[in-house]
Structures are given as C-alpha cells and as structure tokens.
C-alpha cells in the first residue's frame, strides 16, 4: 500500500444494500387478518354488584323479613292491604262485574281490619285495643301494651307504623280520584276502606300513647328515691313531656 494512497480508498465497501420494492402503507390487508384487540378498563360489577357491607346485605324486602322477629305477621299485614288496593284499582280492567269486585275488596278490608287489630298489632308492636261496654251501658276504650322490659323488634315496629299511616293516605288519594272522575259507584268502597284504616290508625296511636304514659308513671312513680314531693314533680314533668309528644 502506498503512503500517498488515501485510507478510504483501500477499504473495501460492504455488500450493496438490497432495495425493497413495494409500499407498505398501500399494501392491502388480508381479508382473514385478525383485528387487533383493544383492552379498555371496565367495571363488570355495575349490573350485578354484590353486597360488601352489612347494610347492603340487610337491605331490600328479603332483608326486612330476615331481620323481622315475626315475618309471617308482617307479611299478612301488608298482603291484605296491598291486595285490597290492587283489586280495587285493576278490577275495572279485568271484569265488568261490579258486585264481584266490591265483595272481594270488602272481604279483604275486613280481614285486614281484624288481622291488624288482633294479630299484627299485638305481635309486632305489643299493642291491642278494643271497645268495652260496662254494666251501666257506657262505652269506653281499653288499651293493652307489652311489658316495657320486652321491647318490640325495631324492624317490626317501623314497618307496622309505616303500614298504619301510609295506606290511609293512599285510600284518601283514591277517594279524590273517584270524586274527580265522578266514579260515584266506587266512592262507598273507598269510604269503607278509610273507616277501617283510620279506626286502626287512631286506636293504635292512642294505645301507644297510653302505653308510654303508663311506662312513665311506672318509671318515675317513686321519684328515684327523692321522696313523695320529688316523685310528684318528676312524674308530672315526664307526663307533660309525653303528652306534648304524643298528645
């Protein structure tokens, strides 16, 4: 190698690069080519979310009956009342027999009235009332209540009072609808339903107030050892407070 020869001229070049033919961007995709799968984050528990807390597990109708101490009494309390309203509302669409629908509604109302006063009220909240006539012919109400040391189940008590006050409001709205639609034939049924429902609501309200007053008398009757004057003062204060709350 001569000294004057440049170094670059003595290096043999690599193999010539192979020129690629065609255009990748213009190549047609195969009809059987599989489309790419794009993974996107989703929440699969939106439609069927499982209960994660105790409150979620105990919610709903099934949870109410599970927590109830007397589920059968609670079931029939709502069964008779819902059935009476349902038959009254849909009877005009199912049959033209006015007598049949009226008899069915009246029978359900009577069964609900007896069940609520004699079974549901006594079992669910420990209350009972009835009207009694003495030897002189005077009529008066008698109230019975459960021993305060045995409180009612909270779910049973809550659902009982809801049924006692909600259904009279529903029948009142149906009475307004009947009057506006001039459905005079159905007004007597609604009035009978209101009489039955309001009788139970008023009776159990007074029975509950009487039970609370007697409980207050029994608790503070002795004045917690403060003597007769202290007992009278505390008893009067508690009775006045109970009277303002429930009277």
Short description:
Golgi membrane protein involved in vesicular trafficking. The protein is mainly alpha-helical and 247 residues long. It has helices at residues 7-10, 54-57, 60-67, 71-94, 98-125, 154-180, 187-220, 227-246, and strands at 127-133, 139-145.
Care to describe what's here?
There is one protein chain. The protein is mainly alpha-helical and 247 residues long. The protein has eight helices and two strands. Helix 4 (71-94) packs antiparallel against helix 5, helix 6 runs antiparallel to helix 7 and helix 7 (187-220) packs antiparallel against helix 8. The relative contact order is 0.08.
First and last CA, distance:
125 Å
Major beta sheet summary: 2 strands, antiparallel
Question: What is the general shape?
Answer: flat
The poorly predicted ranges are 41-51, 223-231
Radius of gyration: 39 Å
Give the integer mean of the pLDDT values. 76
Order of helices and strands: HHHHHEEHHH
Family: Belongs to the TVP23 family.
Subcellular location: Golgi apparatus membrane
GO cellular component, one term: Golgi membrane
InterPro entries: TVP23-like
Which key features would you list for this structure?
single chain, 247 residues, mainly alpha, two-stranded antiparallel sheet, 8 helices, 60% helix, transmembrane helix, membrane
How is the topology of this model organized?
Layout: H1 7-10, H2 54-57, H3 60-67, H4 71-94, H5 98-125, E1 127-133, E2 139-145, H6 154-180, H7 187-220, H8 227-246
Antiparallel strand pairs: 1-2
